[in-house]
Amino acid sequence: MRAMILDTPGKPLRVANLPIPTPNPQQVLIRIRACGICRTDLHIVDGELTQPKLPLVPGHQIVGIIAEVGEQVEQFKVGDRVGVPWLGHTCHHCRYCLSGKENLCDYAQFTGYQIDGGYAEYTVADARFCFPIPADYPDLQAAPLLCAGLIGYRAYRMTGNAQKLGFYGFGAAAHILIQLARYQGREVYAFTREGDSKGQEFARQLGAVWASSSEELPPEPLDAAIIFAPIGALVPAALRAVAKGGVVVCAGIHMSDIPSFPYHILWEERVVRSVANLTRRDGEEFLTLAPQVPIHTEVNLFPLVKANDALDALRSGKINGAAVLVVAHD
Ligand SMILES: [Zn+2]
Ligand SMILES: [Zn+2]
User: Fold this and answer.
1) What is the set of domains in the chain, with CATH numbers?
2) Which family does it belong to (predicted)?
3) Which 3 state secondary structure label does DSSP give 168?
4) pTM of the prediction?
């Protein structure tokens, strides 16, 4: 099978021919149709996340059809369409797994990081961590739901009932979550990099009540903000934008250092927190909600072998919505 391989962080991916993997008793073999590209993939390829298995097939927003099932798999059969998210394995017995916080499992393994992922024609995945894909979604539109959607949703949940909600960085996750926010009657304020008028226009088209540079303060204090961009300087910026008691959620897995800031912008019970990974419950909830809204994803398509171009486009901020690799089978 064809696959894109990371040999050395900091170097481009390489096209390779690998044997089709064989599922173990708890795994399914998936014939991949699409794989979303996530900013986390960039952090892995660029070497900012330092624990990848190498060589590695990246990609953790996989949509495909089950081609084979391991002998202990009961929940899926050959021909089912499934999605594979970032959380690929947990231990089921550490204190986090036992208390409903499997996203924090001490022994978690992640798809496209410690487990080969979806920049390939086939992959194997633990069936217990796969989700059925809602029927309403074509493969390509479903792919970004699996991380931008799922982990974005976990970050969104952490904002409680915030009525005025700020999004710092208006990429794949924000363009999904704004649709849920509007469906739930909330107002979204979009913050983009300075001069990104295309991104701001995109946010307004999707219903943002206000869109401007992240250097600006919103017209009114926000109840909460989610920082999707991997830029530590946005933490004090967002703290200045939220009202008393407001929460600032850092949604990314990697962020540049947070500059020091005066205590008074945290004072009055403002909260800064991060969100890590996802639980399967987040996935089930979000994939139930998405077709109800219904959430539409705007996808920028690249063939599998052009994965490096897709990563470059994401790195330079050229993607409105989500980038998705189309996996064609000869
Ligand atoms: Zn565990
Ligand atoms: Zn991701």
Assistant:
1) 2-145+278-326 (3.90.180.10), 159-274 (3.40.50.720)
2) Belongs to the zinc-containing alcohol dehydrogenase family.
3) strand
4) 0.96
